[in-house]
Amino acid sequence: MKKILELLSEEMQGYFEKAGYDRELGKLSISNRPDLCEFQCNGAMAGAKKYKKAPIMIANEIAELAKESTLYSKIEAVSPGFLNLQVNPAIFKEYLEEMKNAPKYGVEEAKTPQSIVIDYGGPNVAKPLHVGHLRSAIIGESVKRIARFMGHTVIGDIHLGDWGLQMGLIMTELQERMPSLVYFDESFQGEYPKEAPFTITELEEIYPTASKKSKEEESFKEAAMEATFKLQNGDRGYRALWQHIMQVSVADLKKNYHSLNVDFDLWNGESDVQDRIPGMVSYMKEAGYAYESAGALVVDVKEETDTKEVPPCMILKSDGASLYNTTDLATILERMEKIKPDHIIYVVDKRQELYFEQVFRCAKKTKLVGEDTRLTFLGFGTMNGKDGKPFKTRDGGVMRLENLIHDINEEMYRKITENRVTSEEEARKTAQIVALSAVKYGDLSNQAAKDYVFDVERFTSFEGDTGPYILYTIVRIKSILAKYREQGGNPDIAALQCPGSVVEKELMMSISNFNTMIASAFEEVAPHKICAYIFDLSNAFNRFYHETKILTEEEEMKKAGWIALLGLTRDILETSIDLLGFMAPERM
User: Fold this and answer.
1) What are residue 269's phi and psi, to 5 degrees?
2) pTM here?
3) How far apart (Å, rounded) are the C-alpha atoms in residues 41 and 132?
4) What is the DSSP string of 126-179?
5) Rg for the chain, CA atoms, rounded
6) What is the pLDDT of residues 83-126, one digit of tens each?
7) Which residues make beta-bridge pairs with 115?
8) How many degrees, rounded to 5, is the angle at CA 204 between CA 198 and CA 208?
9) What stretches of 178-235 show up as alpha helix (H) in DSSP?
10) Which partner for 157 in 93, 122, 266, 303 could form a disulfide, CB atoms 3.0-4.6 Å apart?
11) What is residue 62's three-state secondary structure?
């Protein structure tokens, strides 16, 4: 289905061509002065120099030709050469009817679907998720949903940190506390226990204790490094203990991500590619890509066009140990062999931009990926407190993610029970749904790369540019549709009518921009565009609602037309919030 702008532009382009001008000059845009017009064309301004004519002369020519149009109800040439247009109200009715009956409301799926991998987790196992993990999860989940909506095959990979020194630290601390565990008995030949010798709560206390010890006691640090070496070289007991750490940690991670309505197709980690590293390193050496520098193995990735220093990408340290670079490159190699993606998107902190620039260049230079494979760094800014500094707990520590979610749930529960009487069960369930909208919309309404202030009071407000405001709008529509059914009407068969007022036409125009917005959000990897759209759409609906007596309208056909418009508004809003990763309750 053509986008509304394409439909309107094609006719205008025909008039430019008819008058002897370049067709491309006839492209329209949504007016930045809605008080003057709905759409505008600046082609006369752009063509003035080429055709050696005053722009107003070109604009007047086009306006005269366009008088015959059935698409435009008004076209006006305005000095110095703009064309201001109003659209025939019937066009919006016809366009929305087509949208209503089209798959995905007229969004055209990709003609050549791509295979896309999104790397958007990155937590370390054995550590609790904290607020620093929030943005990657929320942004990545939305990007995944948008790409799938556009018809692409998308695989989300959490990419766990599960193979580094933290494993050795945990195991060394466990050995000090429970030296009799069979995992540390080198002579043990039997089957290891199926149950882990610790809970997630104990595990989350063990790691920071061990980390602190390693900074204070050199012997402890050396023991941890030895334990890491044993694990990574296949020690049977350490591998079994590692499996326990993984099982307990992943179960807890899944619970926390589930509370955010975030899920991953792959739960792979650094450990999954360790066996690929030796072959990859040998290949890089033999092909002449990697060379020794101060004992380390590196690949030069600088380019002649660089305006700043881009250091070599280190593959192995001087002691032969691998790094994050090594693991990330091996992960790219595995993804190319197993998935063959056209595009890999990394949703990570923007402060890692130089690191990923090195990794991407190294992957391209060493031909781990083909020239056509896209590697995209989607860097996000910091989530800050009201003081403008990274979000912390009241005592200055890093807040656990589950504690933040709990606090938002409690705040929403308080607001919901303040406003009306409802059962405890329903209030709790509704509070969770609305709280998730507050968190996700609060994050996604900002451009990913920008820092933003996490303001609980503002994000949980039912007024303004917030998730709860969007949900309140949807619930209001649902309530009206339910009352219409109670009156004996059937919203499912109600037919759209031509808009009879300015606010009704504005609502229709807002709906008509849905497929344009979705295409843009995908192309620019920009979920914030969906937030901006549904905020404008909600505002357009609420203006219409306040100026229109919908259920008391006596003319049944007019009422049914409004009901049909409400149903489509609800559907577009619910489709949009699903792409952002949350849903609306039935009541609030």
Assistant:
1) -140, -175
2) 0.94
3) 45
4) TS--BGGGHHHHHHHHHHHHHHHHTT-EEEEE--BB-SSHHHHHHHHHHHHH-T
5) 29
6) 999 999 999 999 999 999 999 999 999 999 999 999 999 999 98
7) 153
8) 120
9) 200-216, 218-232
10) 266
11) helix
| pLDDT confidence of residue 407 | 93
Q: Which residues of the chain have pLDDT under 70?
A: 395-396
378 beta partners: 347
Domains of the chain in sequence order: 4-87 (3.30.1360.70), 165-259 (no CATH), 269-380 (3.40.50.620)
Residue 2 to residue 93: CA distance in whole angstroms: 15
C-alpha closest to that of 445 among 463, 459, 432: 459
Contact 68, 45 (CB under 8 A): no
Residue type at position 362: C
Q: Which of 284, 292, 174, 302 has the alpha carbon at shortest distance from 240?
A: 174
**Rounded distance, CA 152 to CA 66, Å?**
40
Q: So what's the pLDDT on residue 319?
A: 87
- Exposed/middle/buried for 206, CB within 10 Å: 0-12, 13-18, 19+? buried
Quote the tokens at residue 329: 């490159």
φ, ψ of residue 360 to 5 degrees: the values are -65, -45
Handedness of CA 210, 214, 215, 216 (dihedral sign): positive
Q: Hey, is 430 helix, strand or coil? A: helix
- DSSP string computed for 339-397: T--SEEEEEEEGGGHHHHHHHHHHHHHTTSS-TT-EEEEEEE--EE-TTSSB---TTSS
CA 278 distance to own-chain centroid: 35
Write the CB contacts of 498 (distance below 8 Å, at least 6 apart in sequence): 89, 90, 92, 93
Tokens of 53: 């004519």
- Beta strand 72-78 with 82-87 is antiparallel
Structure tokens at 470: 């969007």
